[in-house]
Amino acid sequence: MKMEDNHDSLLKELQAIVGEEWVSDDQAILESYGKDPGFNTVLRKHQKDPNMLPELVILPETTEEIRAIILKAKEYGRCVIPIGTGNNQTGFCIPTRPKTISVDTKRMDKLLDIDEANMTATIQPGVSYARLQQETMKRGFWNGGTPLAPSNHHIISQIHAFYGLWQSALKYSAGIRSIVNLKGVTPEGDILETGSASIPKSGNFWWYGPGPDLKGLLESATIGSLWFITEATLKLYPWAGGDWPNEEIIDRPPLPANHRIYFVEFKEWEDMYQFFYEVSHNGIGSHMNLCNDTFNSFNTQPTFEESEKKFREGYFPKLLVYVILAGISSNKQLDFEERVLMDIIKDTNGILRTDELKEILSTWHGDAFRSATSMRMGRRGSYHLVKMSELPLNCVEMVYKDHMSLVEGTEHYMMDDEIPWVYIHDRGYWSLNETDSYFDQNDPKECERSMKRVTTGLFRMVSDDNNRTGWYLCGLEPLTTLYGPKIGPDFHLMLKKIKKVFDPTDTMNPGKLVNI
Asked: From its phi and psi, is residue 242 left (phi > 0), alpha (psi between -120 and 50) or beta?
């Protein structure tokens, strides 16, 4: 390893790899790579932690350049943080150690191949959802959904950080299941491919190869800690919607062609669970989500003040579900699914909302598909990861009550008493519970209180085996990992062993999967 007082030498060698204009140690640029609204990040800013800023920022263009950067980082004793979109909320891309290189993939924006026969697309990490949609819809395909994020987000990083959940996962499943093959660079500098692409001359079309396959290990929420993904091949699906519709009134986007949306209100949790189950197991619909009162307030109002006013007034129902039907084959399919849906609504005591509420909620048309221009609510906090979880459908109320028992009686900033945001995917086998924790980012004490609520709730839910299944994602260092009651808090010990195999010198995004 070269001496550590070698910043200028490292800078020159990295410039030789990617070009002088694509490496920077400018203070203003470094500052922009050292902040996000996550609890831990905000608190570290108040504490003036000097390790939050990278030593250098570099923007490569190819797999080979990334390999050279990683090898050079090891030679100079540096850490490397892979960055996708960079629009972070949980601190995953913020340095925690000195002498860190932030490797931004924005220049790696090539859509390498669209294989219409096998219905796949191969992309680099800088390709956004909007870009892939635009190119595939021209050919009658799409990737199956848009993320729980703006459509300018890069697909690979969004899928690998948060499972790739999206509004249409009822029919098309989560984004992580659409991955066919992956290509990337290990912390040791080896270029690795998974699935059929790992077999010379076999082609890039299938996610299994003969013998052991590493895709399942490497695709699951590793937060850039096990390797640096440089290409991904994704499954495509038939697109029923034709040309993307024009938005003539801002924030009132029309549905794409051959789709219908329904808003159904419930008074009781049990009726809503039964509705989820019946829609899922009757095989109808492409989207089904509980659009909670908080997000309805944010999605439909022009200011934070108006959003909170609507929320406090209880304008939006607490238990409101939207379902979208997609006519993949014909309008007869839509008519048939609508008849089935109406029967399910009646049998589960649902209330079909066709009044002015449906017009106000037309913002969800855009949120359900998220074109590059559809609105995204302004968020004033960070994810409340106690509720970023995978659970059976009948656990939603339990998670909500657990959450409320934490925030009641505790001073908090805004709308922490919201109903969970639930996404139904894989035909009802799972649900996502997500909410935000709103805190005043100018108040470090409020930030600390919010962090305490998250960690307290996490460990309580993990340690209690009572009717708790699934996993919980924690984004707070040093707990940035997955937990679950069947796995337990010692899960990190297994992750440490895996990390040491792939990254014995702790080069890749240290401290974000586990601390070794």
From this structure: left
